[in-house]
Amino acid sequence: MLDGYTWDMTGYIRKHGYQVQEKGITTWEADRIFQLDPAPPEMELNDYILAAIEKKELRYFSFFLHHYEWMLNERVYEFRCRDGYDRYDPERVVDMKMACMEAILARLPQYDPNKGAAFTTYIYHFVEDALLSFRLREEAWSLSSLAVYKKVRFAAWMQDTDKKEDHAAAFAEENNCTTELAADYLKTAWEFRRKKPFYISHQDEDDEKTSADASYDRISFVASIWRGMQAEAVRRAFEKLDYREQVLLEKRNAVCMTCGHVGSLHERAAFEDMAVMFEGSTASGAERAYRRAVEHLTMLLFEDGAIRAMRLRQKSKTVHKKKITAAAYEYQADCDGEWGEIRFEFETGTAEVIRLADWDTMGSKVFAKRAIRFLLNVNRERLPKQAILAYPLADGSEGNDLPYVPRSFR
Predict the structure, then answer these.
(1) Are residues 247 and 326 in the same domain?
(2) Which of 32, 47, 102, 302 could form a disulfide with 309 if both were Cys (CB 3.0 to 4.6 A apart)?
(3) How many domains is the chain built from?
(4) Beta strand segments in 141-273, E
């Protein structure tokens, strides 16, 4: 299929190498597996593909992937959420992206630009089929083809959304088949729904309360900590802080990192009390030191791949009668890449995304929505000039819920 093509990447390396960790690669790396260093020469996206076909050099295909990756991330994200399995597993996401890359590469020689379609449009359905094939391999190996699997998925969708009693007749009419064959598809769909996928974690398998469909349930950040999935990461990050940062975090949050005791918020130390602990400091100085400690811990957890994070910084604000009526904020997704911009009208409680940040998704705008929800729920008199928002990997929502925010930002 690719006879005569060469793939020489001399002079280029992967920009973000995999960190050597026992738990595998991080979320940050999974989103950037096709990034190159140095950056490829600037060309139109379709021109990379045309050059690859004309010169039979697949380095141009790698250049295409470098710029196409953020779109591919969005396709994978939307598929995961639509498929009901929204827990972020970095290694699984990489496998899905590699399956898509293989499917795209296989279609490269057949692309005909004279038909008027851009390459990204041409490969759209092939990427979707690659994701479905990947999911098919995870769920079962007994189906004869991808076409059959699509019909089984459609049958499962009907069982979930269609309130008609006679699903077989409706399926037969939609797919132009007999009611007997439709009944077989519906039965197969039901049987597959009752199977537990092989990729369910061992924590779920050991939980007596976990049902056969537990792999599709969203796991909250708090539940993750209770199950011990993030506790070790928090402990590692905490041990990297200096003594003053550790004391500030424990006293202000009423948490003992040694024994694990979590007290009520009424037990937490005031900034005036913490200032006394460190002679020569004031209450405002202790508060600033505490906020720096929170940001340091957040970044350590982010670098360890335990959470995801984004940065916010205030660009401008409008004040009328001593009240902030509007503001413009810049945000950075995953603390990397070009900043996006959001403008807020606090009088009406609305916001407008002026420019998306790098790595944010065009359709769902996950990072932008989180920034909007956070800032619209903050007291206008205490709008932060800059902040770091953290949220769990387990959350696959499209920004419909509030992000997990350290106590200092609440």
Answers:
(1) no
(2) 302
(3) 4
(4) none
